[in-house]
User: Fold these one by one.
Assistant:
Number 1:
Amino acid sequence: MPGNPRFATLEGKIKNRSARIGIVGLGYVGLPLAVEFAQAGFRVTGIDVDERKVRSVNSGVSHIEDVSTSTLKALVGDGLVRAQSDYKGCGKLDAILIAVPTPLRKTKDPDISYIVASLDAIAPQVRPGQLIILESTTYPGTTEEVMRPVLEAGGLKVGRDIFLAFSPERVDPGNKLYQTKNTPKVVGGTTTWCTKAAALLYGQAIEHVHPVSSTQAAEMIKLLENTFRAVNIGLVNEIALMCEKLGLDVWEVIDGAATKPFGFMRFYPGPGIGGHCIPLDPHYLAWKLRTLNYSARFIELASEINGHMPEVVVRRTAALLNEAKKSVHGSKIFVLGVAYKKDTSDVRESPALDVIRLLQDEGAHVSFHDPYANAIRDEHGQVQKATALTAHNLKTADLVVIVTDHSVYDYPAIVKSARRVLDTRNATRNVKSGRGKIVKL
Ligand SMILES: NC(=O)c1ccc[n+]([C@@H]2O[C@H](COP(=O)([O-])OP(=O)(O)OC[C@H]3O[C@@H](n4cnc5c(N)ncnc54)[C@H](O)[C@@H]3O)[C@@H](O)[C@H]2O)c1
């Protein structure tokens, strides 16, 4: 392969750490990434339209649990990390990594407007030798069909003058074992030079880089990963519904199946799925396939089953109240945990919000507690504040519903005080006394 002088220059800058890196979007993905590159010795500029996040980063205060304030403060103090709320000076950066949100519209169609907005701000400043990488989860074809034409509009050619790649972020907030650095990074470029440039950059900060043949393959890899989770959670939720009909304990069934040392992987049922990824990402794939006249049946089915789980929780709640000769209307229900998964504060798309809303719609008096979230906002913007986790508040509730299995909860104490507990996560599995009060999903 003949050489590429633009690549050679970028390679030199990356290797001697003089390459300047820009990270667009300082959220759950962008901030840990910025820290990782800064720790590898690069000067990193974070760009985020949210002024509060910019101020907080510049004062060294982390707004993401996986990044400690002491780490961030030291990097900001050393001049390795700084943030800004506009795109000024983008042309001076050598690599720009985009990690902005990719939500769904109400119709469940992809909303790539954040990617487009950041691209529109970057494109007029793009210069030869720059490397642009998209990290946001999106449908196969986005990098090639949406980004490439915008970046080439000024006459620069991808693969010759500038480099373009997709590298899916795999961050698992709250995971103590796998973080940005030790989670392998998949990289797919538009051309071989693009893949080489992106792989070289990530290789400086991330332990293992896995190059693939195209941006589309890299986009699809991320969607396979998240569709795999969504479908398997959908399957195990349906198994839970089957076990309920059969009078079986789904948790015992899963534990038993998991004794098989091969060919089985544990997934757990629960009140539904949440967060920025699992409920949304598979719909990016389903949407793309619809444009090709193909129906992504597993995705639709899993979405239907998972999306129905909050109603299952409400049905089980009603049944338990009924046993106590009570109606949902007028009952006091105390929900424990509103984050979509344990040990995080992330309430985005959390099934707890649906459970609370559905119970309130039925006339229940619902209070909640979460060690990491002290307020929630409903779809009308109405804020509800958390209630203290006291023995009194547990005792006076007609039913305590465990929606998120945070590790810091003292489950024996909760069960001791509560009159009745609906445990949607088997969080009380090790509670010995008062088991008669507990009903599992
Ligand atoms: N959170 C996760 O666990 C996770 C895991 C893997 C992949 N992803 C994907 O990574 C992407 C980012 O997710 P996230 O969780 O970090 O989102 P986030 O909401 O935490 O952060 C995104 C940030 O982008 C900023 N932003 C929005 N528009 C902007 C613009 N035009 N210019 C500059 N900044 C802008 C927002 O203010 C926000 O701070 C998404 O595509 C998501 O699907 C997320």
Number 2:
Amino acid sequence: MAILVSACLLGENCKWDGGNNRNEPVIAFCAGREVIPVCPEVAGGLPVSRQPSEIRDSRVVARDGTDVDAAFRLGAEKCLALCEGKPVGCAILKARSPSCGKDCVYDGSFSGVLVRGDGVFAALLKEHGIPVFTENETKEAETVLCNR
Ligand code: SF4
């Protein structure tokens, strides 16, 4: 079974500031598995680098106030389409991102405040029954993969 992984966790420089979130435990988890790397924000047509964004009143807005919701949703749909015809066991996504965050995201005030909620891509995967984990939950992901 394939696994979807936030590309920035694998060391790809696709973060808003041009950097990455390379994560060694995630890379170790991916070893020997079929990995589908995804960056929904880049897939949606946003550049590297770009303004940081957060979810406010159910829409994604950039720090300068630009509404980037459509690009986020398009990117999420495109990344989901990469799974077509492939059984996907789970996704390992970057915590707190407005695209990839699971269960917890920034509140739209750009002041570091977290609230309950999912990023746009994480929410879409959940809607399609794909289990989502953060980079801090590889043990839980392992358990789910063993049982699928
Ligand atoms: S959209 Fe996801 S994969 Fe892309 S940089 Fe943000 S957290 Fe990483």
Number 3:
Amino acid sequence: MLPFQLSLSLESFRQHPGAKSILRRLSDIGDIFSNTAEVQLLADANPLIYEFVDLREGLAGSMMSFGLTVIQPGTVGGEYAMTRGHFHAVRQDGDEVYLGVSGTGLLLMQSRQGESREMELNPGAVVYTPLAWAHRTVNIGREPLAFFSIWPSATAYDYEEITRRGGFPRRAMEQNGRLALVSNPGFHI
Ligand SMILES: [Fe+2]
């Protein structure tokens, strides 16, 4: 493997050898939003929610993996566009570092014990998520939210535990044009 350099843009990441662009449309992640009626209404339009450019294949054999994610602006039934969110599988090194690139974002986090934390993910913000904390990113602004993340290559994702818990302890809702973090009544550990 040789040293290489990228720019913090989708174009730069997409062009890297082995890059895989993963598109998540509403049909892929509609189940994470609380307003099921609105999810059905938007089914035909099936909007793009986010794109994640994963460089893992191009980094085969390397210790670190990283990617760039862009979440589109807007809400689904008043809930801001977001990623599915995951835990990193237990018994593996799996801390992760996030860097805000552009837009206005929020990281929703929950511990194995069900504690909740939320942190801003704006340009230049760096957030460290320890192994035991699940993480979901949310675009709470009016332009695309871009962020960079880096994690150990051995990390495995656990999405099922988030589904089993009914999501995250709090939901990022738009109320009167502003962010409101509301308790998620469907959440349980
Ligand atoms: Fe992660």
